[in-house]
Amino acid sequence: MTKNIQNKSRRDFIKTAGATTALTAAGVLGAPLVARAAGSVKIGIVHPVTGWAQYSGSQARFGAQTALDEINAAGGIKSMGGAMLEAMLGDAQSKPEIGAAEVEKFNEGGASAIVGAYASNICLATTQAAAKHGIPHVVDVGVSDKIVSRGLENTFRFGPGFGAVTKAGVENFLAINAAAGSPTKTVAIVNEETTGFGAGIAGIMTKGLAPAGIEVVEVLSHPTPNKDFRNIALKLKEIDPDVLIPSHYYNEGVLFLRTLQRQKVQPKAIYSVLGGASSQFRFVSEFPDAAQLVMDCNHWFDPSNAAALALQAKTNAAGLHFNYEVFLAYTAMMFTVDAIERAGSGDRAAIMEAMANSTWEGSIMPYGATKMDNGQNTGARPLVTQVIGDDIKVVAPADYASAAPIFPRP
Asked: What is the reported pLDDT for 124?
């Protein structure tokens, strides 16, 4: 079913809100809240399905909607007597202010929770707007750590932020480089600077690589969207670093890597951190030569998880690509629904409390049990992938690897 639509600490806020809800339920209903059949529980799903981020936003919407449909097909919310989930779809149009306006519509329409909104700058706006109304908002992709560092009691992120991803990126790169005989001496970083996630990566990488004697010789930033990488490619050809570390969204990722190929920029390795195209099946299928042997430390599903493989098959059958937008949004929705199930209610405060105390272990991600710390799932971890042939393999860490890394590139 579809429609278009701080002062306190997080713990104190949720505790107070939960108590108020319980008192209201006791006063109005004359008894404690029990499982009862309800018509539906509304969940706002907001993504940029038009504008510069429309491809990724549409992929994310598919993931969230698929999870919601699966729950309904399995009988809805059991603790509420089989209440169905109702999606309220919003289009952020790749603009933060439009995303915030969609949240206002969700509030007016009675949404119990929100899932979205892909890009970091949009997530910053939608979570802030949702906080005004006390709507629990689960961020699916947005990696800027500002999203969960502002003390918003309503905001939860199941996947890792850019700080955790970059830290893991450094650690895994150093291990891969050491195993290959430490061929890397110089690195250049190319990052997006518009939406909030790319700008912080250079500092973390520089600090992390220095103890291994690896110098970051250049940091080249670009806006999002960006239509021309020729000047950056020429600069990279001039400085000739051993390894390139790019970080950007899908369209820029494709253009950047194709420009490197055309300009014959051939470093020993391309090791992305949150690379927009580097671990995308669409890119591998459309531009296999440019994608070949590119590595990426990014969000990735557990390749041994049967439910993840089933979702991959369903995504492929729909004519879409099983990229991070799909499985992160799917997981964010499943986490949201688990909280609603445990809350036994569509009440926003009760759902928020369930999210804050979640120990959910049903994820298709390599995370283990959920543990929220100020809205961030501390068990979330990225994996390192590499394009090998026509597939994307996990190459690090070793406990999830499906192939050995090819490093440096032959």
From this structure: 97
Are the beta carbons of 326 and 62 closer than 8 angstroms? Answer: yes
CA distances from 75 to 66, 83, 286, 310 (A): 15, 8, 39, 19
Q: Give the residue from 43, 60, 49 showing the smallest Cα distance to 91.
A: 49
Q: Are the beta carbons of 24 and 323 closer than 8 angstroms?
A: no
What average pLDDT does range 239-250 have in this prediction?
94
Q: Which CATH architecture has domain 2-160+304-377?
A: 3-Layer(aba) Sandwich (3.40)
Q: Which of 308, 251, 244, 271 is nearest to 168 (CA)?
A: 271
Residues 6+ apart with CB under 8 A from 58: 47, 49
What does the alpha-carbon distance between residue 212 and residue 201 come to, in Å, rounded to a whole number? 18
Q: 105: number of CA atoms within 13 Å, CB side?
A: 18
Report d(CA 281, CA 331) in Å as an integer: 19
For 221, the enclosing helix (H) or strand (E) is strand 215-222
For residue 193, what are its two tokens?
């600077």
Domain 163-298+383-400: what homologous superfamily? Response regulator (3.40.50.2300)
Quote the tokens at residue 93: 């149009």
Q: Residue 297: helix, strand or coil by DSSP?
A: strand
Q: Contact at 8 Å (CB) between 125 and 147? A: no
pLDDT in tens, 108-166: 999 999 999 999 999 999 999 999 999 999 999 999 999 999 999 999 999 999 899 99
In this prediction the pTM is 0.86
DSSP states of 145-159 as a string? GGGGSS--TTEEESS
pLDDT at 273: 94
Pick from 199-213, 238-252, 336-350: least confident: 199-213
Nearest of 67, 71, 89 to residue 80 by alpha carbon: 71
Q: Locate the domains of the chain by residue range.
A: 2-160+304-377, 163-298+383-400
